Amino acid sequence: MIAYLGRIVHDNDAESELDDDVSSISKSLDLQGSVENGDVSSLACKDFGGLYSVKPLFLIKPSGAEDISRVVKLALRTSNLTVAARGNGHSINGQAMAEGGLVIDMRSTEKNHFEFLPINGSHYIDVSGGALWEDVLTRCVSRYGYAPRSWTDYLSLTVGGTLSNAGVSGQAFCYGPQTSNVTELEVVTGKGEITICSETLNSELFFGVLGGLGQFGVITRARIKLQQAPDMVRWIRVVYSEFEEFTRDAEFLVTQKEGESFDYVEGFVFCNNDDPFNGWPSVPLDPSHEFNPTYISQTAGSVLYCLEVAFHYRNSDHPTVDTAVNGLLGRLRFVEGLKSQVDVSYTKFLLRVNRAEEQVKANGTWDGPHPWLNLFVSKSDVVNFDRTVFKTMLKDGVGGPMLIYPLLRSKWDDRTSVVLPEGEIFYIVALLRFVPNGPSVEKLAAQNREIVNWCIKVGLDFKLYLPHYQSKEDWERHFGNRWSRFVERKASFDPMAILAPGQNIFRRDPSNIIISREF
Ligand code: FAD
């Protein structure tokens, strides 16, 4: 039976008006958790990007998978309701929103799972989909001396939110993204079924959900691979004036055997000037370190490159750290004299962006809009990308970090839903724009579109990371030969297109046929 907009089919098959009253919906759902109105001030209408805001019908704070299953089943009994899991709302383009739908605040489930599991000599942690990575880190290290192997740069993101994308940082060259470091999931599908899945059990759902942009199920629990946590990290930045030398060294480091390189390799582009956010002052790791521009050659261009690396060690290893680090640095060709280095605890290193957040919050730009753009660009096209985008379009910076570092395709599992450029080596590029008082947000968003359109026009081998597209053609092009698999997975696990409507890939259609959204 198909209900009309704003109506719900009750179990007795009699159609009636959907009660938009919080207490009656709460009662009819019989939740352990709670329900709030989706008014405009609600967190369900906001995300980190600050570019979009849509109003849901209700914000649901579930107590766990059972509640989420009930919410999905309620939506299934209507003709139009959709359901969006909201992790910590750190999307840029409204991906965790549901206009007129039901937003599930996954943070209310954060404490449901936390179990340390030694299995056959390896170690794992079971955590809630709504847990923040920063809490996973601090609890794992302080209680067990172990920690996940693969991270994001910033840790106020939820486990379910990053696993729905990939989860990438400077450890991914070695261990793969976070999606390569999970062995089991508990998922509530778009049919409302609570399903355990892994590489060997319900594997199509397992791989579909990883990098699946929330399209196939809500992750309520994840089993994450752990490693012994080091005590300390030597954190180092070195500078290059030539892109080719920067990429040569970065690629050298990420292609060494495990244990024969740094434990973390990233990099960023910065302006060859004294601008406090975009230029030389953004490089030193410690305020007492000066960036001395006299070391930069007169022939250097408008932008320079910084390779950022880190070396893990235990306190007892301290005497051997210099030898190991200097051995690796000795093989690199950075500009002599432009090196900054500090020793920090392992947790302090991983929480570095959370500390920067506190500083940026103090100047008010953290809460403003963030028209960010993330891409994966194939090694074969990265020199062209540097020449056109960094050296020309973005030569004055973006008011925040412009990350670029290499990753290895072989560390990613191509059974997941993530799509990558061709070729073994590709670069993640992240334009992390902050907008204090520079050009308008519209201008910056237009510049992002210009970059993406240029990539398409010249036939660059690239993919958007955290993709945001508006038409069926764009999504088909994004997924390429993986599109039909993505659509089949949708038909299997969320045939009514209930889940994650804010991704704008599928739209809920009363006729029950999944079609890509046209705008
Ligand atoms: P949300 O924004 O709440 O949700 C994102 C999508 O996932 C939505 O479609 C939502 O419906 C879905 N979703 C959320 N929870 C679940 C769940 N439990 N099950 C199924 N679907 C779910 N990414 C990196 O890879 N590396 C980085 O270093 C990195 N740094 C970042 C730093 C900052 C400051 C910010 C704002 C973002 C960063 N990101 C990074 C991007 C980040 O990984 C994604 O935006 C991620 O989706 C945010 O997680 P979230 O918990 O806030 O998810």
What this model shows, in words?
A hairpin with a 5-residue loop joins β1 and β2 (about 15). Residues about 1-15 and about 510-519 have low confidence and may be disordered. The longest helix is centred in the last third of the chain and has 17 residues, at about 440-455. The chain has an eight-stranded antiparallel sheet. Strands 7, 8, 9, 10, 11 and 12 form a six-stranded antiparallel sheet that branches. It is globular. It has helices at about 20-30, 65-75, 135-145, 160-165, 170-175, 205-210, 245-255, 320-330, 345-350, 350-360, 380-395, 440-455, 470-480, 485-495; strands at about 5-10, 15, 35, 60, 85, 100-105, 115-120, 120-130, 145-150, 180-190, 195-200, 215-230, 230-240, 265-270, 305-315, 340-345, 375-380, 400-410, 425-430, 460-465, 505, 515. The protein is α+β, with helices and mostly antiparallel strands and about 525 residues long. The structure holds flavin-adenine dinucleotide. Flavin-adenine dinucleotide binds next to β5, α4 and β12.
